[in-house]
Amino acid sequence: MAKLEALIFDVDGTLADTERDGHRVAFNLAFAEAGLDWHWSVELYEKLLSVTGGKERIRYYLENFNTDFTLPENDVEFIAGLHQSKTAHYTAMLEAGAIPLRSGVKRLLDEARATGLRLAIATTTTPINVQALLEHTLGKESLDWFEVIAAGDIVPAKKPAPDIYDYALQKMGLDANVCMAFEDSENGIKSSMGAKLRTIVAINDYTRDHDFNGALLVLDQLGEPEQPFQVLAGDAYGAKYVDVALIRKLMQD
Ligand code: XBP
Ligand code: MG
């Protein structure tokens, strides 16, 4: 039986609900700043979320939802410029404390560290976004809690490709068998399961209808003693919130 050694976390939607009121708003601010009349509504953004990565998402939008717009010849630089401005707006929002961690995240990280579990991050978002989120929710020192922060363009193929999880595992020198991944989306579990990781899902409003087939447990949140999770799929062994004991039980499945 494999012994639990590490937890690997997705960021957007998993550590914090960043998409609707964070990334989406920052994209819109960047478009306005560039004098573009593009606006990504809450509904449109749900469709755009099928593509991970901000630069990839802008291109997907232009190719599928704004086909009248002619990209300039230097399209790669144009999109990268917009994305840079989006990142500046997004990190400013995080610095202002606009986005809290989801329920149970801090408690679970604290317990995992106290128990000697190793921690890592595997996300498609830009590295500076992860730093800003951690710094402004858990404090600057929390950056050191994670032995690997695998993020953004560090691997060319973003989620749902398994590459970012493979990269994190390889950097930690760990087999997938001794780790648990935490995700919130279908692209996320395709990626984690593609890397052969057992995965716990905590959904959010954008992902509740996604296909989570193969996840060990699908929950509405990680939960707290005073704020129990709802089990949407899988067996939580009567637990009310995700803690290390529950993760160890799930490892034995
Ligand atoms: C997150 C993403 C990211 C963010 C935007 O997916 O898809 O693209 O929406 O971040 P996951 P950037 O949670 O599966 O990692 O603009 O920095 O790319
Ligand atoms: Mg996510």
Structure description:
With 253 residues, the chain is of the alpha/beta class. It has two domains: 6-17 and 100-250, Rossmann fold (3-Layer(aba) Sandwich), CATH 3.40.50; 19-95, Putative phosphatase, domain 2 (DNA polymerase, domain 1), CATH 1.10.150.240. Helix content is 41%, strand content 12%. The chain has nine helices and seven strands. It has a seven-stranded mixed sheet, sandwiched between helices. Strand 4, helix 8 and strand 5 (198-202) form a beta-alpha-beta unit. The model has no long low-confidence stretch (mean pLDDT 97). Magnesium ion (MG) binds at residues 10, 12-14, 184-185, 188.
Which CATH class of the largest domain applies here? Alpha Beta
Helix content: 40-55%
Name the CATH superfamily classification of the largest domain: HAD superfamily/HAD-like
Count of domain modules: 2
What fraction of residues sit in β-strands? Answer: 5-15%
Contiguous uncertain segments of 5+ residues: none
Q: Identify the bound ligands.
A: xylulose-1,5-bisphosphate, magnesium ion
- In CATH terms, what is the fold-level topology of the largest domain? Rossmann fold
**How are the strands ordered across the major sheet?**
3-2-1-4-5-6-7
The CATH architecture assignment of the largest domain turns out to be: 3-Layer(aba) Sandwich
Which class of secondary structure composition applies to the elements? alpha/beta
Mean pLDDT, to the nearest integer, reads: 97
Assign an overall shape.
globular
In this structure, how is the largest beta sheet organized?
7 strands, mixed
| CA distance, first residue to last residue | 10 Å
The number of E-state strands comes to 7
